[in-house]
Amino acid sequence: MSALRKNAGILCVLVAVCAAAAIFGDNFLTGYNLTNLTQRSALFGILALGAGLVIATGGIDLSIGSVVCLAGIATPWLLVERGWSPWTAVPTVLAGCAGIGLAHGLLVTRLRLQPFLVTLCGLLLYRGIARWMTGDQSQGFQGEFGALRDVALARFDVPGLAGYRLPATVIPLAMLAVAMAFALHRTVWGRWLLATGRNEAAARYSGVPTARLVTLAYVACSTLAGFGGMLFIFDIGSAQPSDFGNFYELYAIAAAVLGGCSLRGGEVSVTGILLGAATLQVLRTAIILVGLSSQLEFAVIGAVLLVGVAADELVRRWAERRRNRAARGG
Amino acid sequence: MKQAISRAAALLATMALGAAVPAPGGDLVAQQRERIAARKANPKPKCHVAFVSNGVADFWTIAKAGALAAGRKIGCQVTVEFPGGGLGDQKRMLEDLVTKGIDGVSVSPIDPVNQAEVLQLVAERSFLVTNDSDAPKAPRLCYIGMDNYLAGRMCGELAREGLPKGGKVAIFIGRLEQDNAKRRRQGFIDGLLGRPSDATRYDEPSKPIVEAGYEIVGTWTDSFDRAKAKANIEDVMIKHPDLALVTGLFEYNSTLAVEVFRQAGRSGQIKIAAFDEGADVINGIREGTVLGTVVQDPYMYGYESVRVLEALNRGDASVIPADGMLSIPARVIRRDTVDAFWKDLKDKLEAGRSGKARG
User: Fold this and answer.
1) Taking the domain A3-320, which CATH number applies?
2) Closest Cα partner for A290 from A31, A72, A23, A7?
3) Which residue among A54, A253, A319, B306 is least packed, with the fewest CB closer than 10 Å?
4) Between chains, do A26 and B239 touch, taking CB under 8 Å as contact?
């Protein structure tokens, strides 16, 4: 099944949701709204890219939201409470998140623990650490570190698009997406990673260093979650360790699955993941702009996800049947 | 003999009080009062009481400072618990405190109606008072806090003052399940629209209200997800480009409104009537982009909770007000009072933080 068709599917869903929001909602197609949507899609997109990588290996990472919390809380905590400079705080936090990913990878590949279990424990552990470390106090930049926060808050004018201002978060997202697409589809390591996801035993017997690849996927996922957490806190300004990033892993996983990643592993589409992340954010906004009760938010997202995934599966079967028939005919 | 007489007298007094004020929760309130009377003859030498918040926030750190200060002054042991995981977490903490044999609990119930059982459990085994958000139907001995309806009204009147000619108004609040949130929101609406006071009135959150020149376009909740709370304000601003005023009825809602308008370059254009004392709100008041803020006195919630619970353990029922409400009124902070208020607050917060280890 081609990645193109997969992307066409999710693109149709995104376009349909946007069209519905534009028709039934107020001011959907304004520069300010599109700027906001780009920002939110970029933030969740970064998390979803990491989730997609782990899903491609046939694993799962449930700790994304807690890593978002730990990194997002640790950054202002180190800067404001501990007086670190951004040049030491940011690399330290990212290295810490990479370390978390390394631990997940090693536990999954060396100790052969279930990814679900390892990352579920991580989900509890990292939030607990964030709460303990800060004494449950909300952490914020207290009006300082404006230049650092501009990594997420800066906006650029786009010629020809009045009112729309491209958020700076799109730059790291684009760089990460291009790097990931290149690595997955143009390097032998990427092919090996997908082969590992499809059939780990077969890949291992063919000489693929599966353990190293799986570990690398977890390292990338946690690092991206940490980086995303930092951007989230730059965007919001302050956060509470007890609830910051709650359920964000589910948004990331949903975006990846909606974007064509199979939870069985071996399938990933970077473009699809980005479209999936955008679809979820457009849906959330559409609910307000259309004037639906915000209590319906989860129900609407759940329903659209289910319809999207079911339609995808039906199209896949239909295509397969056609292919088989054509093969028999030929 | 003397003991029996005093017990009978206390029982009579309880019955008399019970007749005067039909106490909700019925028997359990009477049972607690019996136990208070029993304590009079047999006071607990060094009691251990607990203060349980409804979540985690700087607001509660200040309350903690008050609770610990009272504990030190009176000489009783104080445990402070902040449930970070919502309703389930709070229930577990209350159950554990009861298991531990706690002598009194002051709690801010997250969802009083659906927490009836655990609140009854506390009342059966210990003394129950509520703080910050009341549970009027639970067997609590009293409520310590402000009247959220009146505080909401103060915020509504502040908004009315800043927007005398009317306009579009949006309300943002963490969640609406808890009693204080509902009352605060209703108070805001009634204050803004200049309606007569009636705390039992209830306007459906899903319906816009057009009245007295104002249009309240809606109430948006976020379940404490700040990214969602921020998105709500941005989205409502898009849906209603002519929005004239917003109110954030929980601390971070107001703080995020300041942040969103700053980022959108609309600071001062859309007015903010705030609640609580987020740092950005305080700066906004100084700069003139926030009309003012309604603040509670969480320090006194903590302090009074411990004082009342300790007195009950000595058999002193006189600390329970006749109407069951120990009122700690809210205040409106404007530009002229903001600096003095902020300094006092910082000192109390510091006291709460340094008391962390002892908590």
Assistant:
1) 1.10.3470
2) A23
3) A319
4) yes
Number of CB pairs < 8 Å for A and B? 97
Residues 214-243 of chain A whose Cβ lies under 8 A from any Cβ of chain B: 232, 235-243
Question: Closest Cα partner for B115 from B93, B90, B80, B132?
Answer: B90
Q: Note whether B84 contacts A: Cβ–Cβ < 8 A.
A: yes
Tell whether A138 lies on the interface with B, counting CB pairs under 8 A. yes
Q: Report the number of distinct structural domains present in chain B.
A: 2
For residue A246, the distance in angstroms to the closest alpha carbon of chain B comes to 7
CA torsion, ordered B91, B94, B100, B101, to nearest 10 deg: -130
Q: Quickly list H helices, chain B.
A: 2-20, 27-41, 58-74, 86-100, 116-125, 148-162, 179-193, 226-239, 251-263, 279-287, 298-313, 338-354
User: What is the rounded end-to-end Cα distance, in angstroms, of chain A?
Assistant: 19
User: B166-203 burial by CB neighbour count: b if 16+ within 10 A, else e?
Assistant: bbbbbbbbbeebbbbbbbbbbbbbbbbbebeeebeeeb
Give dist(CA A286, CA A280) in Å, integer.
10
Query: Closest Cα partner for B177 from B142, B233, B139, B133?
Result: B133
Same domain, B141 and B156: no
Q: In Å, how far are A51, A111, A195, A217, A220 from A192, measured between CA atoms? A: 18, 22, 5, 12, 16
Neighbours of A298 (CB within 10 A): 12
CB B299 within 8 A of CB B66: yes
Closest-approach residue (CA) in chain B for A164: B264
Contact A243 B221 (CB under 8 A): no
**Residues B267 and B253 reside in one and the same domain:** yes
In a domain, B22, yes or no: yes
Q: Can you tell me the distance from the alpha carbon of B257 to that of B229, in angstroms, rounded to the nearest whole number?
A: 9
**To the nearest whole angstrom, how far is the Cα of B62 from the nearest Cα of chain A?**
11
Q: What is the pLDDT of residues B192-227, one digit of tens each?
A: 999 999 988 999 887 889 999 999 999 999 888 889
ipTM above 0.85, yes or no: no
d(C-alpha A238, C-alpha B62), whole Å = 18
Say if B357 is an interface residue toward chain A (CB within 8 Å).
no
pLDDT one-digit tens code per residue, B142-196: 999 998 899 999 999 999 999 999 999 999 999 888 778 999 999 999 999 999 9
Give me the residue from A136, A239, A285 closest to B231, CB to CB: A285
DSSP state of B9: H
